[in-house]
Each structure stands twice: as structure tokens, then as C-alpha cells.
Amino acid sequence: MRLLRSDHLAAWSRTFAIQGSWNYSTMVGAGIAYSVLPLLRRIHAGDPVRLRESVERSMRPFNGHPYLCAMAVAALGRLEQDEVDPQTIEKFRTALRGPLGTVGDRAVWGQWRPICVLVGTLSFLLGASAGWSAVAFLVLYNAGHVAVRVWAYVKGWQAGLEVGRLLKGAWLERWAERLWPVNILLTGGVALVLADVVVSQSTVPLASVALLGMGAIGALLAFRFPRQGGRAAAFLLVIAPLLWLLGGLTG
Amino acid sequence: MAVLAGGVLGMDAVSWPQIMVSRPLVSATIGGWLLGNPAAGMLVGAVLEIYALRHPPFGAAKYPDTGPAGLVAGASYAASGGAAMGALLLSIAVGWGLAWIGTVTVHVRRRLNERIMSPAGVLAADPGLLEQRHRMAIWLDALRGAILVAAFLVPSVLAVTLVVGTGPSSLGRYAIASLVLGLAASAGAAGRASAFGVRGWPLILVGAGLGLLLVWGGLT
Predict the structure, then answer these.
(1) Which residue segment(s) compose the domain that B27 sits in?
(2) B76-86 pLDDT, tens per residue?
(3) Which of B9, B44, B140, B203 to mutate to test the interface with A (most CBs of A within 10 A)?
């Protein structure tokens, strides 16, 4: 049966909840089935046996970036409509898992989200109100977020089995490669301005040049050895209030 | 109100709708706003962000659950008046600790989801049941966030408010230096998480240099 625009809208909007039942057995598999269900109900209307079979297929283990899973949902709906055989659908799902995760993680989690967060933080540190900075971050981030979900769904439906080819060298991947220097620049800049704002909240005198030098060395070492750097950062975060309290108790 | 907000923030990170109100920059600001000082909340959130940025949720990596934790931390600092250094340091540490407690609860919820979403055959035969269970899993995530806020908000606010009275001491400068160096190390590790290899290391210094210009230029 021919799909309606409202079916696509329902499936697309459900992808916002695609990780709702994420678990270690099927990962996002049940979420894929939940999202593709409006399409399957229309495609297999009046045929409960085929509906059950296709829902069962959709529930099998799957993983990928949640925003790009919209592409998988649309493509799987397309394959079901085109009556592609189950073995091909299973192979397609397996082939799609890797690229959907890698491309989305690198572009969205690795670049877009940090950049938007840092822009929001910087606007606050430069004097914008907290409310405005939070809203600016949310609007900027979600403009990209929703655009990616729409693009993924539309391309998934149009490309069907050819989605894998579409992901190779997609604009998302190119963007990730172009944006990372901006990301690192912002990280260094925001961390320094934030440290200055924190220090200026206190009346305690600090040897600024020495602290600046130590901070630069610390940042470089953590960049080279991120795991150890991260642990050191967490230790310093916990020790800071303890030192403060200890100083207060001992006078 | 805070518990309801905790529910929304708890489910945003993973379950629905992932619009990132669960990022500490926003959740801590909401916490501060609930206690009448959003700017104090955002300052705490900004520090937590630099720490959270080095934990991108790539693959099976564990990452801090900063939604409810940010709210509690931001509210705690706002309740203290948003001006005392000791309160700021403690609020940040409480937020970071609670974020990792949140991670443990996320793990438990994922195990619970395995039970909720099985057996697959029964759910496939009844798509209505599948939808019902999926939505139930999302509501459980909201409940998880609400419980975290309900359990930790009052103790955290009380603890941070108690610290307000402790003024700077001989160890005060070391405490602040500790936070600043922690921020630097976290920024370095966060920069590496977004870099394509180690080749971007000079950029972190260039970025810090640009930040220094902003500070010297009096723009902050």
C-alpha cells in the first residue's frame, strides 16, 4: 500500500526516541522497530503475518549514531515496501551499522556538539546573560541536529540499498575534517577565559604567570596523553574543595 | 519543580529527544534559575562542560550523565549566593561526582531495558505492546533523573551552603590553582578527543593565546 506523508512524518518524529529502550542485547534494535512501525503498518496493512515478520526483523541488534539512524529507518522502510528479500535486508543492516556510527560520532559528537557548547560558553564569559547563552547554544545546536535528521531520513528513503555508498565521503564526514581545528582553538580559548573568570571570583592572590605556564604544560601533556590527563584533571577537581576546606579548618 | 526538571534532563541525554538540555551548560543554568541565580548556575555548568567534553559518547565508551548532576550543582552554587569560592569548588566537585553516579544508574536502566524489551517474538506479534514497552522505558529514564535530583539536591545544597562561611586560607591559593590546572588538563584531553590524531597540539596553545588576548583586552 502506498505510504502517506503522515506515515513518513510519524516515522521521522519517532526517531527522536530511537534510543529510548537502548540495551546491551539489541542496542538500538527495538528503537528502530518502534520508529519504522508507522511505515510497516501501512505497507503490510491487512497482512498481520508479514507485519510480524518485518517487525521481528527490525528488532534485531543494530547500532549507529542516533541522528543518522533516521537514515536506517527510512531505508529499511523502503526495502520493506520494495519487497526486498529478508536475507538482503539483514546483510544491508549489518553493512550499515559501522558507517552510521562512525560518521555520526565523528561529525556530531566529535565536532558539532563541542563547538556549539563552546560558543554558548564563550558568549556567557564575554558578558551575555546566562539565559541568552543557553538559548543560543540550544538554537545553534538543534538547527544542525534537526537538519541532519531530515537529511538522513530523506536520503535513506531515496537511496534505499544504496545508502552505504551515499555515506562514503558524505558532507558530514568532510565537515568533521574541516571543523576539528576550530574545535581545538575554541577549547583552548574558552578554558583560558573560564579559568580567568574563576580566579577573578576569588580574593586569593595567585602567581598568574607561573600558573599560566603550568596550565599550558598541563594542557599539552593531557593532549598527548589524554587518558592520564583526564585522570589528573578529575583528581585536581576533587582535591580543590578538599584543600579549601582543610585550609578553612586549620585556619 | 526541580524534580520534574530532573526527569526531563534525565531522559534528554539518551532516550528522548536529545536536544541537549542535558548538557551541563544548560542543566546547571536551569538549576541556578530555579534557585534565583542562573548566572551562578552557568558558571558551574561551564566548568563541568570542559570536563564533560573529554568524554564523547563514542561507541561503548562510558560518559558522565550530566543532566540531573548539572542541575544539582548549579542549584547548589546558586543557593549559596553565587559568590563564595569554596562553594563554587564544592559545587563543581559534587556535580562531577553525581554525574558518574548517574552513569551507574544508566547502566542499571540499560540492563532493565533488556527485560522490558523481551521476548522479541511476543513484541513483534503485538506491535502495540512493543510501542507501550518502548515508551515505558523512556518514562523509566525520566524517573531515574527525577530520583537522582530528589535524592541529592537537598544534601548538596546544605553541604555547599555550609562551606560559604569558610574564607580564604593559606591553602586557598592551592585549591584555586588545583581547579585551574584541572581545567587546563581537561581542555587538553578534550581537544585530543576532537582532534584527528596528535597533530593539532599547537592549536590548543594558539586558542589559549587568543583567550589571553580577550582577557587582556578586558572583554571578559
Answers:
(1) 2-167
(2) 999 999 888 99
(3) B203
